[in-house]
Amino acid sequence: MTMSLPTARPTPPSPCAITICSAARGIRIASAAPEGHAIIGNVVFAGEPLSLHNTITNVRDNIIAPVADTVLHLVNPQMTLGTLALHPKPGSCEGTPLDLSPFATETAFDLDFSGTSKGDRRIRGAYSAKAGWMLQSGIKPPSATQPKF
């Protein structure tokens, strides 16, 4: 039996407000974006935090540092499911308010990974609050404020 899968339109690279802890590489985009792109408001701890094609130029308001610095900025960056907490420590991972207006038509553009409002949008990374959903094995349940896809 042969099965054909639908062809999806390529999604433009737009890592926005994510948290990465990697010994080797953080965000890598090896080719030109087919449409638009934005690398905005991320927290990336890696040996090579950003490895971007030379045409990827909309890169701003990111926090990049070596992996060893995770303990200075994140609540519990120990890579053990159930205790791993990539939330920023108070006063850490902050900057000027992010302009997310280009993403206003996207679902949940103003919510963090836990489904919490990004508020004044000063905090970088996946979480805008001190606490929230802890990474664990399995599918993350939807939150009350998070749209159900």
What letter string, H or E per element, gives the SSE order? EEEEEHEE
The biggest beta sheet, please?
3 strands, parallel
Give the strand order of the largest sheet, numbering strands 1, 2, ... along the chain: 1-3-5
Distance between the termini: 31 Å
Mean pLDDT: 81
Shape: globular
**Coarse structural class:** mainly beta
Tally of alpha and pi helices: 1
Low-confidence stretches: 1-13
Describe the fold and architecture.
By secondary structure, the chain is an all-beta fold. It has a domain of 85 residues. It contains 1 helix and 7 strands, in the order βββββαββ. A 3-stranded parallel beta sheet has the order 1-3-5, with no helix packed on it. A two-stranded parallel ribbon has the order 2-4. Strands 6-7 form a two-stranded antiparallel ribbon. Strand 6 and strand 7 form a beta hairpin.
